[in-house]
Amino acid sequence: MRRRLFRSLRSLSNSLNVVGAIVVLASLFIGIMETSDWLRLPTATATVQAVTVKCAMSYKVGKYDRKKSVVDCGEVGAIKAKAPDLNWKVGKVSFATLVYRPGGGKLVIDDFALTALHRDSVAVGEKLTVYYRPARPDVAVGGPTWKWFRGLAELTGLGALILAGAWLLRKAAFWFLTDEEKLAVEAVKKARSTDSLGSRLGKALVAMPLAFFGTFGLYVGGALMLAAGIGYGIISYGESASVSTMATVTGIREVCDISYKKGTFSSVARTVDCADAVAEMAKLPQVRWKTTRRTEVGFAYTAGDGAMRTAKKTTRRDIEKFPGVGGQIRVQYPESRPASVSIAPDAGLMRSLLWFLAISTGFFVVGLICRPVLKRFEKRQAEAFEDKATKVYLSLAITRMAKDAGFADVPEAPRHGDGAQRPPRNAAPRSHAPEPGGGFGRRMTT
Question: Hey, where are the domains in the chain?
Fold first, then answer.
């Protein structure tokens, strides 16, 4: 139980270290980028002509993504009425209409959000200093303010607090260990710190190929090989179990499936002519449309029973891969059900499946061969590190036992062939205390 709690706290501490480092680095990056913009961008004095309030509308299109748009607040009701199934979120945003002349050039009149100007409020007629881009004078930001620096400092402080919390958790994790376990953790740390650069490079040279060839090559390559083999087998079996014949194209057109998400797992979809897709999407421009093109083919064929039949099928194949009206295409149908017709698989699809199968099989074979070899190297490295950590642990344990016994001046075991401590040069000779007689294991006589 104690060890499990120790591992959990160490894992949480490592995660907090990563989060804290990301927050600190992100705040530093933002500060450097903004400061560099303020230092290198030219400035202009802008006059506030008007202050308006607009509405920012958004709805979720996924678990973490939202589609956003800024409209006049009077249009909110009409937009909601066009898409009542969406969970709209509406908020007000303040804009300032600025007028400025960048570098004595053309006058710029545009609306800017107060958040981009780093201001909470402005008044009509107020003068502001803006920083604009020479290539795009209409793109401007506000100057540095105390509030902006305070927000950046708070973000950096938050990252520092997270790192401090991670350090405290790491320290608190050791409270749940016994003295022997603490000594073992210290031995592992010292053993890792004594690794040479060549040893660390050797571990990386084994870990990276093992992750790519041993894991990705074996498992992912095997799964892709199995999927490609099953797909190729199903298509081949369908061709062999069906009757193939030539059909005459009676009509062909390109259709578009347009849809937008109204939630994480739900969406609204419709199929229209691709020529009408733009007009349909323009009816609701505030949502994020997704368009998929397909080809609808109508054809007539003579079945095995001698009857002339017609059918209409939709496929994802490009319209260029089909002949025009009056051309011939290959179709197939089960012998017992001539009306259940489908367009024969494309030869290019079969070639792609074969290539996919060959490549995934190659990855699987490489992983099958490389994984045992790399695992053997990894095991040897782990055993060598375990031996080194054990030696460090024994050295620390002996030193601690000597200190507990009262020998506070006992030095640590010599490393890398270092001998006993030598007296300094020109030091007076030390007289040795007389040893008790009798030797080891015998009584001393008086």
Answer: 1-25+149-237, 42-132, 247-320, 349-404
